[in-house]
Write a structure and sequence with these properties.
This protein is mainly β. The protein has helices at about 5-10, 20-25, 50-60, and strands at about 30-45, 70-80, 85-95, 100-110, 115-120, 125-135, 140-150, 155, 165-175, 180-185, 190-205. The protein is about 10% helix and about 50% strand. It is globular.
Length: about 220
């Protein structure tokens, strides 16, 4: 089975660094999980008026207001098929600062949209279009686009003036022999909202799809893309 990232990148997937290919090249059929552990060298937030949005984000594990340096974190990537049969990859980031905070996301490849769709939060209320590209170092870049809000019978395109555009870069540092990640979320009107940069190592675990832990699965799964 082809990974969702291979589906999205096509032939460009081969341009990724070999370690990044491994990170993004597995599917539910492979019986493995990628568990990263490392240090967030910096976690930052925007101006004071962005804090209400960050606090609201904690309700559904989307964003949080804490900042700091050298914060231990984990990132759990499991691949499984959701109840709709869609190949899904978890992105469960846990930050161990003064308070333990989580940032949950669930990615699928959408045939409807022809790209990755990222469901944000524990209840998958936000469906975000993701564009992928490969940089000159063989790293992977992700950029968020249109967002849709879903809750019960309600569904609408989320206005971008109330949200942010995320730029993510993940690459392998050959000199330091570790993975690195930078995330930058900005609003077109209000500027910087939230972000972090850090480094981590990866442990590969054997795991059957039926044994994907419950703590990394969403509380609800949203069928609308």
């Amino acid at each position: 089975m082809t990974s969702i990232y291979q589906c999205a990148l096509g032939s460009d997937f081969a341009r990724l660094h070999p370690n990044i290919q491994r990170r993004f090249g597995f599917s539910s059929a492979d019986g493995v999980a990628s568990i990263g552990r490392g240090i967030m060298e910096e976690v930052w937030k925007g101006a004071w008026y962005t804090e209400p949005f960050l606090y609201v984000g904690t309700w559904r594990r989307i964003m949080f207001p804490e900042t700091g340096r050298n914060i231990p974190f984990t990132i759990e990537n499991y691949a499984y098929r959701d109840r709709l049969g869609r190949e899904t990859v978890t992105w469960i980031r846990t930050f161990h600062s003064r308070r333990t905070r989580r940032f949950d996301a669930y990615m699928i490849y959408s045939e409807q949209h022809g790209r990755i769709v990222d469901y944000l939060g524990s209840h998958e209320h936000l469906a975000v279009d993701i564009d992928l590209s490969v940089d000159d170092t063989g790293g992977l870049r992700l950029r968020s686009g249109a967002q849709r809000f879903y809750e019960g019978p309600v569904g609408f395109r989320f206005p971008m003036w109330l949200s942010g555009i995320a730029e993510v870069r993940e690459w392998y540092d050959d000199a330091a022999r570790c993975y690195r990640i930078v995330v930058d979320v900005r609003n077109r009107r209000w500027g910087r909202l939230f972000g972090y940069r850090g480094r981590f190592d990866v442990e590969w675990r054997s795991v059957a799809e039926a044994d994907v832990p419950l703590h990394v699965r969403p509380v609800r799964e949203e069928p609308r893309e």
